[in-house]
Amino acid sequence: MADKKEIWQKTRVELFRDLSCTEQGLTGEEAATRLQQNGPNELRAEKQKSTVRIFLEQFADFLVILLIAAAAVSIALGDAESAAVILAVITMNAVLGTVQTVKAAASLESLKRMSAPTAKVLRDGVVIEIPGRDVTVGDVVCLDAGDAVCADGRLLDCAALKADESALTGESLPVEKDPQEVAGDAPLGDRKDMVYSGSFITYGRGRFLVTGVGMDTEMGRIAALLKAAGEKKTPLQVSLDQFGKKLSLCILILCGILFAVSVFVRNEPVMNAFLFAVALAVAAIPEALSSIVTIVLSFGTRKMAKENAIIRKLQAVEGLGSVSVICSDKTGTLTQNKMTVQKLYAKGKIIPVEEADFGDPLQEPLLRAALLCSDATVNENGEVGDPTETALVRLGERFSFDEEETRQKYPRLTEIPFDSDRKLMSTVHQLSGGLMMMTKGAVDVLLDRTHISQEERKEIEAVNEQFSREGLRVLAFACRKVDAPSVNLGDENGLDFLGLIAMMDPPREESARAVAECAAAGIRPVMITGDHRITAAAIAKKIGILTEGTEAVDGAVIDTMSDEELTAFVPKVSVYARVSPEHKIRIVRAWQERGNLVAMTGDGVNDAPALKQADIGVAMGVTGTEVAKDAAGMVLADDNFATIIRAVENGRGVYANIKRAIQFLLSGNMAGILTVLYASLAGLPVPFAAVHLLFINLLTDSLPAIALGLEPQSEDVMLQKPRPRSEGILTKDFLTNVGVEGCVISLATIVAFHIGLSAGGAATGSTMAFATLCLSRLFHGFNCKSAHPVLFTKKFFNNRYLLGAFAVGGLLLGSVLMVPALEPLFSVAALSAMNLGAIVGLAFGSMVVIQILKALRKK
Ligand code: ATP
């Protein structure tokens, strides 16, 4: 407790020191100096691993440790050469692994930075948006609903501010804030005059003076106690790990049996038998499965980020390939979020915007309310604020009414901010005749709060319907006199109706095409919007979401349905209007109940639970709140629906590439182990030296596997149906292909082994088996490009990484076979040109056979 008191006292001292600059905020120079003194506003608990540590971790594998032990025993027995080769191969493999891990981590880190929260600070008297890490002590930070608080600080002023401090206090209900309620050493959750880093603003707005940043915040103190949280494995990695474990156990048992047979039946030296058993285990156990997934996923995320989809959780990339339903907002995602006023309705008259007249006493109260009950500003620097409101300000400017002047003339005393649940906003102003509350909002909501006759209501509703059918968004305006500036939600009643303003938000140009792509890809797009049903339906029809046989409904219709009824109902509906956050969650759940993998967009504070419920939560990067971004697996840098479709396409591509790489690794390993088994059962000499298996597995095999992870997307990827959500990679078909391809490569290797055995004995046989297996696996990379034959097509050459991997692998193998100095190191015998030709022919032949099998399967 004493500690806390000290902190508050320190806070207070800093506060008074800084108060002098609150009106203007810090100057840029002051901010830069303080930033330098205090360091960036970052929590440092999740420190990045150093490269050296990553390198050392490559050796912390059971099999690698066994190999090192084997090398040590070799040295003790005087066989320094073998030991050196083994250690060199292990080290090169570790270098490769380190480079891949560091690269993957770097690209994930840069993604994290892209989706890191920003803050609105007052600098030199102007509000600017800066990265949260650049906020410094003494800054004045402006808060709106949905913002993440990025530093600790004392509130200067606020309107109906509520903060979710659950990350700090565990209390799930938002805390109401009040700058006047100074409570010196009250416990954290009871401090109403302070806001804390790590919390979110759920309601209202306010400004605070930063008193602590980074580790010098309450969150920082908690974070310092926590250990670095590692990146969680994706479901695919978990299932591959499980598969890998089972396979490893079988292989270890097999290696144990082979070891026993070598020592006790064939009387081979224990050391040789042991080294071989370990090498076989290394060669056959697919230890790279999980890490190849990380590498390929990180390639994918980099490409997606370039295309404006920023992945926050790696699981999202995997899931994107299976998305079968996309629930999307309308405003800003499917539409441009560029509103322009088209029509007005006042005193019983529909007025086209060209004929609007501020001089007309019938229209003036409506137009004045439009400027006063709005937070947007438009000036030479551009538009700031909600597009619905900037449209109102631009309407005023069109008639030479400056919003600033009007707002100065009728100053705003208090406000009840807009929130999309209530669908209303109110402000109180000092007019010449007294205090006046102006309220604007959704027509259906506001009409219930005005006193109008049944006839008037019918007429207004008819006009609203007419505007909505044209796809216009309609806002209603009303006002009432109030006695005191302080108003609450109960005061938004008994209002005088002023009129309607209708605005157009055209669909994005790319929306219709993206929706058509969805249909071709077997994905169902669903519009879920806060807007009016008829407006939403008009837009949805235009872009192809609302089609024959489906309907547009109000969110409220599902209130009376049970979950089972809703599950049966959702396929019929393409547009949900006037939805609440609870509706969103229920709709997502209903689609999931039907076995679909659902992506859901969201931007507001209240969208967070639905974003979490969805399999892939998609937050808006531009208009989205930090709360929504925090809950999402993916953030759209351009808020565009079409970007989701590109991300799905990339997700499908990435999944296919992971599959290719795994198929490559498993079938190659299978070929090796089948050959060894054959030799053992046939009573032949051992077909490979330990170093051969290590060479193939740790060196020449990794490159094509990674290159397959970069395979260009096939054109038909968006013409296929989504992969069923329950379907893993290791399907019966997939494992059959792995088995068949492994057999073909093994057959080529066995033939080469026999040719070698009869031409020059055991040493030549093993050299030929090794070289054929190695080269076949390099060729096999091309087999794994597609389920269809690619030989003699352009596709064969379209992955330059794979061509490069083949060239490097071929060069390494060529050097081992052709450079006499390397022969003893890699236990290879000199080969005749005929034998070399046989190796190339058999390896190439194995590829041709697999290509023919693919062609037959396709037929
Ligand atoms: P979407 O959910 O597709 O983004 P939306 O932007 O229409 O749609 P909300 O922002 O929740 O959803 O708005 C709901 C309704 O509230 C609108 O249809 C409109 O009538 C009203 N509204 C929107 N913005 C304001 C505002 N700034 N002030 C008052 N009312 C508003």
Structure description:
It contains 29 helices and 24 strands. By secondary structure, it is an alpha+beta fold. The chain folds into five domains: 2-110, no CATH class; 115-228, Calcium-transporting ATPase, cytoplasmic transduction domain A; 238-301 and 648-858, Calcium-transporting ATPase, transmembrane domain (Up-down Bundle), CATH 1.20.1110; 309-336 and 508-639, HAD superfamily/HAD-like (Rossmann fold, 3-Layer(aba) Sandwich), CATH 3.40.50; 340-499, Calcium-transporting ATPase, cytoplasmic domain N (3-Layer(aba) Sandwich), CATH 3.40.1110. Helix 21 links the parallel strand 22 (597-602) and strand 23 (616-620). Helix 5 runs parallel beside helix 10 (289-306) and helix 8 packs antiparallel against helix 10 (289-306). It is elongated, with a radius of gyration of 34 Å. The protein starts with a helix and ends with a helix. Residues 1-21 and 226-230 have low confidence and may be disordered. Adenosine-5'-triphosphate binds at residues 329-331, 386, 388-389, 418, 420, 423, 425, 440-442, 473, 475, 529-532.
Q: What CATH first level of the largest domain would be assigned?
A: Mainly Alpha
What ligands can be seen in this structure? adenosine-5'-triphosphate
In total, the number of domains comes to: 5
Order of strands across the biggest sheet?
Answer: 8-24-23-22-9-19-21-20
Head-to-tail CA distance between termini: 77 Å
Please identify, by name, the CATH architecture of the largest domain: Up-down Bundle
Portion in strands:
15-25%
- Helical stretch count? 29
CATH topology of the largest domain: Calcium-transporting ATPase, transmembrane domain
The low-pLDDT segments are: 1-21, 226-230
What is the alpha-carbon Rg in Å?
A: 34 Å
* Main sheet characteristics: 8 strands, mixed
CATH superfamily of the largest domain: Calcium-transporting ATPase, transmembrane domain
Inertia-based shape: elongated
Mean pLDDT metric: 85
**What structural class is derived from the secondary structure elements?**
alpha+beta
Q: What percent of residues adopt helix (DSSP H or I)?
A: 40-55%
